[in-house]
Amino acid sequence: MTLVDTDPATTALAIEHLCDFAITFQAMQTLSTPLGTRMIAVVRHGTVEGPRLRGEFLPGGGDWIVIGSDRVARLDVRATIRTHDGELVFVTVTGRAALSDAAIDRLLAGQTIGWDEMHARTAPLFETGAAGYAWLNSTVAIAINELSLHHVNYRVYSVQ
């Protein structure tokens, strides 16, 4: 058996729009460390909008980012969503964002870096005990991102 399959019909992944995240942060904490520039963004508020998942991000979660000397941002996100019907969903996100020197300068100057101005891909994972959202526990998701020092937006897709 071979793991290499060149048939496009079996190697393409189908995706479906799951939801959009729009998150605002408290004041960003930025500090230099031996591992790179750390940026800590604590959630102030956020929304989740999608056909099957709607709600808000609760304050206190956050995004712990390390930008290495290679100009790659390594993301570590943990947050809680309260759905429109009162259920809680824990979200973790890992991912990478490759930023040019110009994009980093614009980011640090307070500008928004758009989806098409950087290569940012993330992988949200969901965890909940709510029966109505149990389907999220087995959902594999990917996202593209737009970011600034004050907010981040995700366009989240489930992999079918």
From TrEMBL:
InterPro entries: UPF0311. It comes from the Bacteria. It holds the Pfam family DUF3237. Belongs to the UPF0311 family. HAMAP family: UPF0311. This is UPF0311 protein GCM10022419_119000.
